[in-house]
């Protein structure tokens, strides 16, 4: 685990080394102080030598100041290194997630990825910060105090033969029971984050269906599960302290019992016995620190496993077979015996033996019932998913021969779920082309029928949309997303039911703008309304993951029962609405 995480300390390793050195030196100075004190008590005070006492006292003050300076330095260095390590780890995860396919993201879930990027990384950076202090300080103090205690009295030091093994056994038992609980604790945290994320992102749905009570109950159950898991885990952790203190005070009583006769017989001086108490306390406190570190590291290991799972995940879609510098020659799209399923273990194919040729610059409509795999079909074009069988080609080349960047620059897609980001309208539109001029932005918005409502906005293109575009309606959001896609000037433009929230007149205006402004761009339009695709060069009818029929509107009215039934039902519905 350390081997996998160590590369992310790059840039902070000298800080770690200096912090470790400062922590070790601080511990040594603290341990030398009792010896100087014992020297004052045994030599300076009996002799009444004030000068000697002052000199040794000044030395103690100097040692204390040096120890304090080392402690402050160690705290600063550990904090700097820990925060830097955490930042590197979060960035590495975030960058790696950007390369994930939809399948990779679905494997973890969004809520779990958020927890791994935040909670788990925070725990690891805290472990490094504390580890630089305690993991160094405890062993140094333990070994040094043991050596000094043995140098004072070998006979009294035998109490460690009982106390230390007992403490180690107790620490081992606690760690053994706590370790699986911490893994479960992180999973329960994922569950709570999932409920919160779903509730906040869909708050309008929750309120419109008056399901606040249901959501509160769902949150309560998962929150109670998290609390119960945390109570079990930390219940064992808090047992650590009383057990350690019991052994510590028991050892001190044993030292008093065996040390008193040694003082009475003159075999051991009172000051040295007092110093021995200091060291025995240091030894046992060091063991307590070790036990605390073990508790912390046990949880850190659980977090580290979750983080490395993300970092070790191999993206399904890579540029391994791509040729650098290859760009799409045109917007032609071909499906050659393509089959696809979301899960490799699934028995049923979501797409079956798809054969389809779309010439460059053509307008193609795709219709079909819900669940007929319309969206799945078009998501294979920009490699949002990878076909398991057959070949998808864009511009005459298999999509795998393009780098993902070049392919997705050539293919602009407006998904069913329209997403806008916090910021202004202009900032959102510039996602399509960050170098677009005002004239380019205006032209794209005119084509998407968005310019009119933007002009009515308080600040025009500089109007702040709020989080997720909450300041615009569903239809306005769709038109902004279309304008953003048009700014890419793509070879292939895919609209996945992206005009469902606009009226038929606006829909017709958008399609008319496509014909005049994008003559060389291949337009693929998924729609529920036949009127949105009836003037297309080719209409594809999907049914249960396969192509049922293809042709123009007139041809399909003659040859396709499915198409004809849908058209007639929609015409009847329009008549009733009229």
Question: Would you kindly provide a brief summary of this structure?
Answer:
The protein is built from 18 helices and ten strands. With 578 residues, it is an alpha/beta fold. The strands form two sheets. It has a six-stranded mixed β-sheet with strand order 6-7-8-3-9-10. It has a four-stranded antiparallel β-sheet with strand order 2-1-4-5, with no helix packed on it.
Description:
The chain is elongated, with a radius of gyration of 35 Å. With 578 residues, the chain is of the alpha/beta class. The two termini are 68 Å apart. Strand 4 and strand 5 (397-398) form a beta hairpin. 63% of the residues lie in helices and 10% in strands. The mean pLDDT is 84. The protein has helices at 2-5, 13-47, 50-98, 102-108, 110-152, 160-201, 203-208, 212-264, 270-312, 374-379, 404-410, 425-429, 438-447, 451-455, 474-486, 504-517, 553-559, 561-577; strands spanning 333-340, 351-358, 363-368, 389-394, 397-398, 411-414, 492-496, 522-526, 538-543, 546-551. It is built from 18 helices and ten strands. It has a six-stranded mixed sheet. Strands 2-1-4-5 form a four-stranded antiparallel sheet, with no helix packed on it.
User: What is the residue-mean pLDDT, rounded to a whole number?
Assistant: 84
* Backbone CA Rg: 35 Å
Structural class computed from helices and strand pairing: alpha/beta
Overall shape: it is elongated
Q: Report the β-strand fraction as a percent range.
A: 5-15%
Q: What string gives the helices and strands in order?
A: HHHHHHHHHEEEHEEHEHHHHEHEEEHH
Q: In DSSP terms, counting alpha (H) and pi (I) runs of 4 or more, how many helices?
A: 18
Fraction of residues in helices? Answer: 55-70%
């Amino acid at each position: 685990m350390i081997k996998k995480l160590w590369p992310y300390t790059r840039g902070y390793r000298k800080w770690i080394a200096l912090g470790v050195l400062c922590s070790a030196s601080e511990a040594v100075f603290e341990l030398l102080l009792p010896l100087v004190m014992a020297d004052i008590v045994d030599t300076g005070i009996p002799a009444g030598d004030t000068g000697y006492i002052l000199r040794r006292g000044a030395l103690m003050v100097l040692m204390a100041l040096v120890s304090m300076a080392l402690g402050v330095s160690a705290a600063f260095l550990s904090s700097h290194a820990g925060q830097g390590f955490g930042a590197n780890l979060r960035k590495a995860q975030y960058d790696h997630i950007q390369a994930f396919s939809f399948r990779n993201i679905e494997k973890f879930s969004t809520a779990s990825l958020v927890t791994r990027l935040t909670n788990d990384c925070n725990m690891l950076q805290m472990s490094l910060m504390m580890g630089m202090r305690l993991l160094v300080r405890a062993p140094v103090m333990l070994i040094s105090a043991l050596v000094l205690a043995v140098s004072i009295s070998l006979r009294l030091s035998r109490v460690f033969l009982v106390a230390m093994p007992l403490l180690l056994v107790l620490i081992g038992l606690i760690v053994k029971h706590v370790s699986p609980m911490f893994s479960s604790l992180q999973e329960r945290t994922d569950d709570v984050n999932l409920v919160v994320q779903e509730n906040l992102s869909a708050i309008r749905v929750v309120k419109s269906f008056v399901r606040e009570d249901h959501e509160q109950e769902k949150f309560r159950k998962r929150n109670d599960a998290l609390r119960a898991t945390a109570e079990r885990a930390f219940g064992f952790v808090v047992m650590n302290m009383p057990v350690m203190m019991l052994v510590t005070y028991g050892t001190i009583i044993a030292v008093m019992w065996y040390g008193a006769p040694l003082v009475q017989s003159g075999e051991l001086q009172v000051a040295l016995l007092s110093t021995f108490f200091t060291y025995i306390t240091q030894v046992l406190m060091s063991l307590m620190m070790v036990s605390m570190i073990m508790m912390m590291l046990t949880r850190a290991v659980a977090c580290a496993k979750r983080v490395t799972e993300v970092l070790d995940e191999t993206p399904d879609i890579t540029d391994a077979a791509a040729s650098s510098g290859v760009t799409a020659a045109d917007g032609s799209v071909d499906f050659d015996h393509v089959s696809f399923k979301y899960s490799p273990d699934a028995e049923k194919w979501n797409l079956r033996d798809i054969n389809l040729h779309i010439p460059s610059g053509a307008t193609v409509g795709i219709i079909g019932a819900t669940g007929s795999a319309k969206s799945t079909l078009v998501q294979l074009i920009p490699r949002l998913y990878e076909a398991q069988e057959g070949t998808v080609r864009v511009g005459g080349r298999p999509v795998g021969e393009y780098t993902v960047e070049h392919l997705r620059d050539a293919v602009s897609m407006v998904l069913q779920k329209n997403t806008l980001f916090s910021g202004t309208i202009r900032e959102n539109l510039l996602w399509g082309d960050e170098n677009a001029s005002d004239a380019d932005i205006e032209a794209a918005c005119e084509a998407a029928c968005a310019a009119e409502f933007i002009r009515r906005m308080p600040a025009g293109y500089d109007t702040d949309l709020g989080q997720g575009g909450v300041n615009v309606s569903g239809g306005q959001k769709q038109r902004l997303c279309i304008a953003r896609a048009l700014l890419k000037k793509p070879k292939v433009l895919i609209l996945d039911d992206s005009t469902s929230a606009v009226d038929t007149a606006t829909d017709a205006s958008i399609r008319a703008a496509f014909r005049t402004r994008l003559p060389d761009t291949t337009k693929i339009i998924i729609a529920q309304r036949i009127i949105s695709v009836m003037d297309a060069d080719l209409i594809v009818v999907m049914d249960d993951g396969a192509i049922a029929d293809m042709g123009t509107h007139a041809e399909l009215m003659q040859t396709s029962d499915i198409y004809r039934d849908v058209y007639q039902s929609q015409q009847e519905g329009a008549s009733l609405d009229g």
